[in-house]
Design a protein that fits this description.
Strand order of the largest sheet: 5-4-3-2-1-12-13-14
CATH topology of the largest domain: Rossmann fold
CATH superfamily of the largest domain: HAD superfamily/HAD-like
Largest sheet: 8 strands, mixed
Order of helices and strands: EHEHEEEHEEHEEHEEHEHEHEH
Radius of gyration: 18 Å
Helix content: 25-40%
Structural class: alpha/beta
Number of domains: 2
CATH class of the largest domain: Alpha Beta
Number of helices: 9
Strand content: 15-25%
Distance between the termini: 13 Å
């Protein structure tokens, strides 16, 4: 019986150069031919994964760490962050000199021009510096916000905003989403719609935002390049993504 396979993007599907290895592409195609469903589960926004969706012919995905779920090209769940929470975080970040980036399903918008931390973080994703509008969140549904601060500075936000969740993805930035939000929650919406259980899911990831997904899935795979904390929650440790670890793991798990 076929499984449903959930793949993180950065460090899992994409190698450290933010490119999709040919071995991974071939493995995805072969897994689909073997009767497995293929889905993406990422912290990225929908507009940020359009090329890989096209390359891999995928129409089902979990974005914004579970805040936005699409099944067979149809949006089945979209939970924006409360605008009052965003206003409070924006005010707090301004007082501490930390810029923000707001994301909806179509674009990302910065709270400030030409900040080196934003440039460093966003360029690592191979995207240009966002347009600037510090009030964008007031008029658009924001599914995820990025705060640009160090790990030490992050604790002030954790203490000040217990109703929000902060997940670090870069040395100078962390994702902001509602408490309870996770890739696992997004997976649940998709699985329920399909009439499948979490036991029928196989999850592949490498980052801190993958931990809930790996803990929830019937079978979980951490990439060899995953953080040690992430590996602790996986059933199987793959080789490094740059060494074709994804395809090798899928073969070892008899998915190919």
């Amino acid at each position: 019986m076929g499984k449903i396979l959930f793949f993180d993007v950065d460090g899992t599907l994409f190698d450290t150069n933010k490119e999709l290895p040919q071995s991974a592409r071939q493995a995805i195609m072969e897994a689909r031919e073997n009767g497995h469903r293929i889905a993406i589960s990422t912290g990225r926004a929908p507009f940020m994964i359009e090329p890989v969706l096209e390359q891999l012919e995928i129409d089902s995905y979990v974005c914004f760490n579970g805040q936005y779920v699409v099944l067979e090209s149809e949006v089945i769940h979209a939970q924006a962050i409360d605008k009052n929470y965003l206003a409070d975080v924006t005010r707090f970040a301004g007082e501490h000199g930390h810029p923000l980036v707001y994301l909806d399903e179509k674009k990302m918008v910065s709270s400030i021009e030409d900040h080196p931390h934003i440039d460093q973080g966003i360029s690592s994703l191979k995207f240009p510096y966002p347009e600037v509008d510090d009030r964008y969140f007031e008029h658009h549904p924001i599914y995820q916000t990025l705060i640009f601060c160090t790990e030490q500075e992050e604790s002030a936000y954790v203490n000040a905003f217990p109703h929000l969740k902060f997940v670090r993805w870069h040395s100078v930035s962390c994702d902001v989403l509602p408490v309870g939000g996770s890739k696992a929650k997004g997976m649940e919406f998709m699985l329920k719609q399909l009439g499948l259980s979490m036991e029928e899911a196989v999850a592949f990831g490498d980052g801190l935002n993958d931990i809930e997904m790996l803990k929830a899935a019937g079978v979980s795979v951490a990439m060899g390049n995953a953080l040690p904390e992430v590996k602790k929650h996986a059933d199987f440790i793959a080789e490094h993504v740059n060494a074709g670890g994804l395809a090798k793991a899928m073969k070892e798990l008899n998915l190919l």
